[in-house]
Amino acid sequence: MQRGIEFLGCDYAIMGGAMSWVSERNLVSAISNAGGFGVIACGAMTPDLLDTEIAETKKRTSRPFGVNLITMHPQLSELIDTCVKHDVGHIVLAGGLPPGWAIDKIKESGAKLMAFAPALALAKKLMRSKVDVLVIEGMEAGGHIGPVSTSVLAQEILPHVASDMPVFIAGGIGRGEAIAAYLEMGAVGVQLGTRFVCAEESIAHANFKKAFIRASARDAVLSIQIDPRLPVIPVRALKNAEVERFAAKQREVADLLDKGSIEMAEAQLQIEHYWAGALRRAVIDGDIESGSVMAGQSVGMVKKEEPVADIIAELVDEAAAALESRG
Ligand SMILES: Cc1cc2nc3c(=O)[nH]c(=O)nc-3n(C[C@H](O)[C@H](O)[C@H](O)COP(=O)(O)O)c2cc1C
């Protein structure tokens, strides 16, 4: 973990993966204050909203934290400016391969840059760019995901990349033993989302937290693409009536594509706006039936609401015990 700790500037190389609506000032500062590394989820925020969120987070912690930006956000450049204005030390670019201009802009600002590598070829490509650190996220994770599992991506990518570039592993990590295993394979740290949702400091609605505590791994299912002409990134969430709404939304957007009223990029943006709204309904309003309860398969290991510090301490103790038991 040492390389990960040095890169992040915290006590444990455990990142709180950015979760739209959930990873805001309270949870992010709590994770950083507990020795982990909190990351603000910018999601669909405007630059002004992000500006406030960073300022409020800074009021709650003096420890380092990062900001996660989605590459397809139409105001990506202004969002980077906002991070630079606040001297944010670490920026995570999510939602597709980061464009060259964004990589240059972030690196010129002096911030450290993290990006997701969904396959070995892309990991190698990112190694040749100015990206500092890679995150490998498998399909066990909650939210938007790729098609391959964490364990396969780790085996495919780590042996070829880990000696040259620090790599964090995300997706399906619920206990410290798994953290130990990925560290042994060459990762420098991990990123967890699902395990932090029910933290006491998380502002997620009580209904959202209850749904997590009740759920088992098999309840966290993938969204279904209903029209082959409209490729949508799969989303993992607890199964509920929202599935129907998403089908209707896809039909509506596919129809607009057919009529030529929108281009593919706009179609995909509309789908992303749909998700932002559906997740907000569940996280903030507590509508866990028609909202999207995004959750990873590790949801079965979320048993109660507890302080972030306890979650991190438990993960660290389990990882340490696992490593000690191997001598
Ligand atoms: C409710 C929820 C919302 C998420 N939103 C985002 C997001 O806005 N941006 C992002 O890069 N990842 C997002 N993720 C993924 C997390 O950052 C993290 O990588 C993932 O949760 C790790 O896998 P795990 O859930 O198995 O721990 C989200 C995950 C969840 C559960």
UniProtKB/TrEMBL annotation:
User: This protein's superkingdom?
Assistant: Bacteria
Task: Identify the Pfam families for this entry.
Answer: NMO
Q: Spell out the Gene3D superfamilies in the cross-references.
A: Aldolase class I
The record lists the membrane-crossing segments as none
Identify a single GO molecular function assigned to this protein: nitronate monooxygenase activity
Record's keyword terms, sorted: Flavoprotein, FMN, Monooxygenase, Oxidoreductase
Q: What name has this protein been given in UniProt? A: Nitronate monooxygenase
* Organism of origin: Sphingomonas sabuli
